[in-house]
Amino acid sequence: PYMVQGDVIVPAGAFLNIQAGTTVIFAGTDGLAAGADTGRIELTVNGTLSVTGTDASPVALRAATASPTVWYGIVVPAGATSVSI
C-alpha cells in the first residue's frame, strides 16, 4: 500500500494513474497543513486522474483509521482536465 502523509496535487498537464489492486491509505493528519482543509489530507486534481480498478482487483482509497473525518477526499476544481474512477 501507499501511505499519503500530506496533500497531493496533480498539476495541470500532469497525470496520476492508480492501477488495479492498489491501496492508498491517507494518514490521520495533514503533514503539510495546506489545501482546502489544513487538518485533513486531500487529493486535488488539476490535471488528469485515472483510477482503473476491476471487480477482481479493486482500488482502495481509505483512511488510516476508522474515523470518517480523517481525510478530506478528492477535490476536482472546474479547470481539471479529466477524472475517471
Write the layout of secondary structure elements.
Blueprint lengths: L1 E3 L3 E3 L4 E5 L3 E4 L14 E5 L2 E5 L7 E4 L7 E5 L6 E3 L1
Parallel strand pairs: 1-4, 2-5, 3-6, 4-7, 5-8, 6-9
The main sheet orders its strands as 1-4-7
Instruction: State the major sheet.
Output: 3 strands, parallel
> How widely separated are the two ends?
18 Å
**Beta-strand residue fraction:** 35-45%
Please tally the β strands and state the result: 9
User: Could you report the average pLDDT, rounded to the nearest whole number?
Assistant: 89
What class would the helix/strand composition place it in? mainly beta
Radius of gyration, in Å, reads 13 Å
General form:
flat
Q: Which blocks of ≥5 consecutive residues have pLDDT under 50?
A: none
Order of helices and strands: EEEEEEEEE
Q: Treating each run of at least 4 consecutive H or I residues as one helix, how many helices?
A: 0
**Approximately how much helix is present in the residues?**
under 10%
Features:
single chain; 3-stranded parallel beta sheet; 85 residues; mainly beta; 9 strands
Task: Outline the structure in words.
The protein is mostly beta strands. The chain is 0% helix and 44% strand. The protein has strands at residues 2-4, 8-10, 15-19, 23-26, 41-45, 48-52, 60-63, 71-75, 82-84. The chain has a 3-stranded parallel beta sheet, with no helix packed on it. A 3-stranded parallel beta sheet has the order 2-5-8, with no helix packed on it. Strands 3-6-9 form a 3-stranded parallel beta sheet, with no helix packed on it. The mean pLDDT is 89.
